[in-house]
Amino acid sequence: MAKAYERIAEELRRSIRAGDLKPGDRLPSEVRLARNHRRSVPTIRAALRLLLEEGLVEKPHGRGNVVRKARTTVRRASERHQWEKNRARRPETERLRTGSTEHDTGLDVNDLVFHASYRESGADKDLAEALGVPEGTALVVRTYRTRHSAESAPLTLVTSHLIRSMVEANPDLLDETKEPWPGGTQSQLHTVGIELDRMEERVTARPPTPQEAEELELPPGTAVLMLRKVSYDIHDRVVDLTDVTFPGDRTELRFTTPLERW
Question: From CA 84, how far away is CA 108, in angstroms rounded?
Answer without folding.
Answer: 17
